[in-house]
Amino acid sequence: MLKEIEEQPDVLARTAFERLRDEEGDVEFEDGFAFGDDELSSFRRLRFMAMGTSFHSALLGKLMLEELAALPGDTLNASEFLYSPRLPEQDALTVVISQSGETADSLRAMREVQARGGQVLGLCNVRGSTLDREADHVILTHCGPEVGVASTKAFFGQVVALYLLAVRVGRARRVLDAAAGRRLLDDLRHLRPKLDALFGAEEQAATGRAADLLEPAAGCLFLGRSLNYPIALEGALKLKEISYIHAEGYAAGEMKHGPIALISPEFPVVAIATPGRTYEKMLSNIEEVRARGGRVIAVGVRGDQRLGELADAVLPVPEVPELLSPLVNVIPLQQLSYEVALRLGREIDQPRNLAKSVTVE
Ligand code: M6R
């Protein structure tokens, strides 16, 4: 798992860079993605379906598509689709996301969409997998084989690919002009060196201080808003999968509606508070936690003094455009889970009761 966490800067380069058409401010996928601009513009909605960590990518895919392509999206846990009413599918494109391309719930949902007359775009990491073969269109992530049961680099690759998809659909629908497309692609290229900065000695020391707070915890809460709400969910899933500490991810606005009752010095909060539209509200959440005796681990940009004064530990990240912040913010949370699980002597690469690929419904 540690190796796979550290490979993520390369995953960015492998999944994205050859597909960028810098001059046109656009993205070109391979032959498996055979949509022309007209067809992409004809869809009235996009649906994202997946399971587990890939479901968290799906949540981000929806937000990115809505933001860059102005196309309404929705997200559904793939195992729930079977029970949904049979509405017309002709105006919709369904994106099914799966690292392995073999997850039974996701394949079942794909086949059900197709049986209802809809088209499926598969997003997967394994060439030749069932999703790759059976989806109507495919985008492959180029993460390399993921062996650790807890998904890390595959999630990262999925989010990169979804960003590319959002740019492509935004350009096709003329929501983005070439200049806007170029800016978005530049942002992605500039991310590479910033990611490298997440693996230094200062970051490792910060992970250790945060792990001191989590290791003895009975449970904890992960909070984020907007684009970093899926990252809160993913941070919580990673921690519970490999450390067996109970963790729940919440949209931070929900905190006052129930979870706040859990907060105590033994029940810390991990809060994602990087710059952008949610920053001030996240700081208020952190103040509320502190006022109730809770301990706070914050993900924040390096040198953020306000956050430094409020939080018990800060996991420092470089400042990046808000739309790319999930890619940066997820990494210290993976590192934190890894460190806590290591200290607790867990079987990190093969956590109990879990299989890498869940091939039964
Ligand atoms: O291969 P898939 O992406 O379809 O797998 C989906 C989930 O089973 C998977 O993400 C699972 O949640 C991981 N253990 C998460 O770390």
Question: What does this protein structure show overall?
Answer:
The structure is a single chain. By secondary structure, this protein is of the alpha/beta class. It has 13 helices and 12 strands. α6 (130-134) links the parallel β6 (119-124) and β7. It is globular and about 55 Å long. The strands form 3 sheets. The chain has a 5-stranded parallel sheet, sandwiched between helices. It has a 5-stranded parallel sheet with strand order 9-8-10-11-12.
The biggest beta sheet reads:
5 strands, parallel
CATH A-level architecture of the largest domain: 3-Layer(aba) Sandwich
Indicate the percent of residues in helices: 40-55%
The spatial strand order of the largest sheet comes to 4-3-5-6-7
Could you give a quick summary of the protein structure above?
With 361 residues, the protein is α/β, with parallel strands linked by helices. The protein is 45% helix and 16% strand.
